Amino acid sequence: MKSPFFQKTISCPACGEPASHTLLSSALYYSAEKESDGHTSRYGWRKTDVKKTHPPLYSLISCPLCMFTDLVGDYTKAPNTSKSRATIKNYKNMLPSEQKIIRFIYSLIHLERRSHADALAQHLIALFIYEQTPEEDQDIRKIARLFLRIAWIYREKDDLDQYLANFTKKLKNHWFLIPSNENDALNSAIIFFTKAVDIDPFYQDNRNYINALKLIGDLYMRLNDLDGALTFFEQVKHRSLAEKRKFELIYRDKLTEESMRAKSRVELMRISGFIRDVEGICDDLVDQLNVRDAHIINPILAGATGPEEALKRLSAQGLHEAQLRRLERGGRLPQTKKRFGLF
Ligand SMILES: [Zn+2]
Q1: Rounded CA gap, 248 and 75, in Å?
Q2: Which of 38, 40, 80, 296 has the smallest CB count inside 10 Å?
Q3: Do the Cβ atoms of 103 and 41 come closer than 8 Å?
């Protein structure tokens, strides 16, 4: 059996010192099966005479001299964005207390024979480095991706929770956001992806934007947070409706030039299609929520004397506005009882 690895000397993007690293040849394997949040659940191998290994364990590089750690792709290229430059600059000027955290996590890593625990520790160092960068220079999308990858490592290896319980407890006081299990990591991934879609130019591309929204929805569902998912997609819908109105005004304005009008028409069609998709997702979520909350809804509908009272009582129970509208549209609210004999 041949080794899937090769050695390469790479200069550290932070301290500049060259060091030899063990890398996995990416041409040897491919993602054969993926879960809905992008996690590869099965890898395929292109050659039969190569010893199989688990690729995600080799997706980061750590500098043996300054401990700077990053995804292979980012580690091997010179920092070429203002964000990556700011991250490295900040790393070089880290406070002694922050350096201590990195030294501590680094001391747990065995780079020669990597396990899930080693990969997790490497991810945590990278996450910590990116998180410590001042907010205005932070690469929010990268932080979101690291949180998601950490969630995947936990998913693949449940017993890591136990292994890490002790050391995350130790660090929690110094590093508030340290993810200590899969759900913890997914929660933070949602927060950072939600922020990233608003500010990262990567999401100005429509496909990237829509994929990210689907991913965020998927992560909410994994956390079984239907309410969070509905709130998120309703916000997306309202923002898209506002954007649609903006293009409608341009399109209808008699003074708009023909080329601009044509462009607005294309945008209008795109946004309308997108809104329909989001509405479909919201409808599904409302259905699921109303099934989940049936034990609250049914007794109130049966006991209320009219539609206003029913809505008021349902709302007091914390039901979403969209859930109430669905009951109203579905004709499920009780009708006001006719009072005979008054006239
Ligand atoms: Zn270095």
Answers
A1: 46
A2: 80
A3: no
Q: Are 217 and 240 in contact (CB under 8 A)?
A: no
- Map residue 180 onto helix, strand or coil: coil
Q: Kindly give the distance from the C-alpha atom of residue 65 to the centroid of ligand 1, in angstroms, as a whole number.
A: 5
pTM, two decimals, is 0.85
C-alpha of residue 63 to centroid of ligand 1, in Å: 5
Which residues, at least 6 apart from 15, have a Cβ–Cβ distance to it below 8 Å?
63, 65, 66, 68, 92
Candidates 200, 174, 51, 41; CA nearest to 102 is 174
Ligand 1 mean position, distance from CA 68 (Å): 5
The amino acid that residue 40 corresponds to is: T
Q: Which of 54-58, 136-140, 165-169 has the lowest mean pLDDT?
A: 165-169
Residue 38: DSSP 8-state:
S
Cα of 12 from ligand 1 centre, angstroms: 5
- Tell me the Ramachandran region of residue 259: left when phi exceeds 0, alpha when psi lies from -120 to 50, beta otherwise: alpha
Identify which of 54, 35, 57 has the alpha carbon closest to the alpha carbon of residue 43.
54
Looking at the chain, the number of H-run helices and the number of E-run strands are: 13, 6
**CA 151 to ligand 1 center in whole angstroms:** 27
Mean pLDDT, the chain, rounded, equals: 91
Could you read off the pLDDT of 229-276 as tens digits, one per residue?
999 999 989 989 998 999 999 999 988 899 999 999 998 998 999 899
Query: Would you give the end-to-end CA distance of the chain in angstroms?
Result: 96
Q: What residue ranges do the domains of the chain occupy?
A: 5-224, 225-290, 293-337
CA of 79 to the centre of ligand 1 (A): 13
Helix (H, G, I), strand (E, B) or coil at 310: helix
Tell the residue number behind the tokens 């979101």, with chain if given.
Answer: 144
User: Cα–chain-centroid distance for residue 186?
Assistant: 7
For residue 79, give the H/E element and its range. none
